[in-house]
């Protein structure tokens, strides 16, 4: 019986600190602190992925009120603001992160991203310049390419886009950006190729499909691109081609494409109807 009592007491010392052992008390507290840190880390991750972005902002703000110097909380707060599309606040929050003693290169990339979202291109470029060239990630080079584009440094932009594409298995969005860069330079054939490639990686990218229609229209090719599309997307792309035709003076082709877009759309296509009415009224006048 004494042995059983001893076992119970020993178990209580480990789990409940019941046997009066001060060292045991400290060990138990440390053990529970470790569990709490793990649980909190998991909660932080959840707030950054599945939680509503604005709820996540409030969560991290409450946490920062208790632990204002923790970089993981500062980082979570900044990420949540950007996810919530509160970009100005997000840039300010990321500035607090990069001023922290434990700042990383990844943090500087995220700060540059937030700055670009608020059109602070020069500051974003300066921030990326602080990162050593040995730090090579998809996002870093995607941002470098975008900044080179904004400076019309086309050779650098192409080089950065090419590196970025090679650093990800999902290059659809960056190929679309690269294609738009080519489109803005008037390199329509190359832009068309890049938009088509973007769609092969992600056929849900309607922006790339619309840009592809713009690139074809700029070459006076008014045939719909052969890409996966819904009926609504088909109508929208016909509308884009129509506007391209009208812009280049191919009025009758544009009118025909507008009519086809209206007939194709499963609902009332107000934008196409308005464009056709305006065009017919202008021609009549």
From TrEMBL:
<dbReference type="InterPro" id="IPR011990">
    <property type="entry name" value="TPR-like_helical_dom_sf"/>
</dbReference>
<protein>
    <submittedName>
        <fullName>Tetratricopeptide repeat protein</fullName>
    </submittedName>
</protein>
């Amino acid at each position: 019986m004494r042995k059983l009592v001893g076992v119970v007491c020993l178990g209580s010392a480990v789990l409940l600190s019941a046997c009066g052992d001060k060292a045991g008390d400290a060990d138990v507290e440390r053990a529970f602190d470790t569990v709490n840190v793990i649980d909190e880390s998991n909660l932080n991750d959840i707030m950054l992925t599945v939680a509503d972005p604005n709820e996540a902002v409030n969560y991290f703000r409450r946490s920062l009120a208790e632990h204002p110097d923790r970089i993981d909380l500062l980082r979570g707060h900044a990420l949540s603001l950007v996810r919530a599309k509160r970009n100005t606040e997000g840039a300010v929050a990321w500035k607090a992160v990069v001023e922290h003693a434990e700042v990383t290169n990844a943090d500087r990339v995220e700060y540059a991203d937030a700055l670009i979202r608020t059109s602070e291109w020069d500051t974003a470029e300066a921030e990326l310049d602080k990162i050593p060239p040995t730090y090579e990630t998809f996002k870093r080079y995607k941002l470098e390419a975008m900044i080179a584009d904004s400076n019309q440094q086309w050779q650098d932009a192409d080089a950065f886009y090419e590196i970025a594409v090679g650093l990800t298995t999902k290059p659809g969005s960056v190929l679309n950006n690269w294609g738009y860069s080519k489109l803005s330079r008037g390199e329509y054939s190359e832009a068309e190729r890049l938009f088509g490639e973007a769609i092969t990686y992600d056929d849900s990218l309607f922006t790339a499909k619309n840009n592809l229609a713009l690139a074809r229209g700029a070459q006076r090719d008014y045939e719909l691109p052969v890409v996966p599309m819904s009926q609504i997307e088909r109508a929208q792309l016909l509308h884009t081609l129509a506007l391209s035709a009208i812009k280049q003076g191919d009025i009758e082709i544009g009118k025909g494409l507008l009519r086809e877009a209206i007939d194709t759309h499963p609902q009332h296509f107000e934008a196409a109807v308005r464009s056709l009415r305006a065009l017919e009224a202008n021609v009549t006048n």
